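Table 4 source record.
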Amino acid sequence: MRTPVALLLELGVILAALSMLGTLARRYTLSPIPLYLLTGLAVGEGGIAPVPAAGAFVETGAAIGVILLLLVLGLEFSLPEFAVGMRRHVPSALVDLLLNAAPGAVAGWLLGMDGIGILALAGATYISSSGIVARLLSDLHRLGNRETPSVLSVLVLEDCAMALYLPVLAVLASGGAWWQAALGVLAAAGAVLVAFTLSYRWGHHLGRLVAHPDAEQLLLRVLGLTLIVAALAELVHASAAVGAFLVGLTLTGETATRTRALFSPLRDLFAAVFFLAIGLSVDPGDLVAVLPAALALAAVTLVTKVVTGWYAASRDGVGRRGRRRAGTALVARGEFSLVIVGLVGTMHDTLGPLVTAYVFVLAIAGPLLTRLVGGPPRPSRQVADPRNGLPQG
């Protein structure tokens, strides 16, 4: 089989550039995410150095990147403890919905959009980026912080809300009837409930199913299972990220420790591709006209997300500094907001460019603000694995 030379060359140049930018960012104790996003903007359609041959690979790699980010994140926590945190943060989810969907709805109304456009913009401003937040928590060595379970609870509850929201939006955007939207919601809610129940009650058997002394076999089994679960989650309009996160939560003991070590380099590679893909999806020429509106909307919802994180962390008894870190960690928007645009963006001339500009502004501002508020990243240290007391890196 002959491999296209253009594909190899473009990928090689992209990865080399990301490597240099990542090294530069870490030298100054910054997250490399904003630099990866800007690189994507530079090499995307309308950028200074387009890479058309690499586009399909980057798009596929981005989807895998989100899945790996959430899989490895799930490996850091135990399912019973996380389930308790989820129940405790239902009020946080309600505060999140009210504070962050309302600005989008109001903006859509002021811009003269119809009901579907208003609903779509409300969803785009509501949902944080699981992929960006997961990478930030890792980059800044905050996985062991007291506020991190609060942040993750909010993220997972948001993704569960998306499982109910996306079927409704998809049906309405296609001109379907209300009863079709209701059936979609019931199916998605049932699927999410079944997934959590199975994972909670019988997830401990999963470790024995995938465990193997050979590293290659363990990698293939865990990755294959994760992709299958992620695909099933997407099939019912739930988040593939939630499916991957559940797989990570259900793995325990030595299996979790070995899986984390095996997947961390793979996660970092595909995570870089994910952030690159967000920039690739943006045409700089489309952003100019809507940039003032996007900046205004970003300023408002930046504040509302900080308030959301502050409230969620306060429910776990976290101190003031940790509450600020929780709030800023949730600021970034990303993949789900762009999915919403994909569903209804062609129906509204303004919606697509506005949401794209909005996502790009907060995908850059979120990591920078999180780094600024939280201080420099702490050096990596050995902490106790909550599953079995073993040290983890």
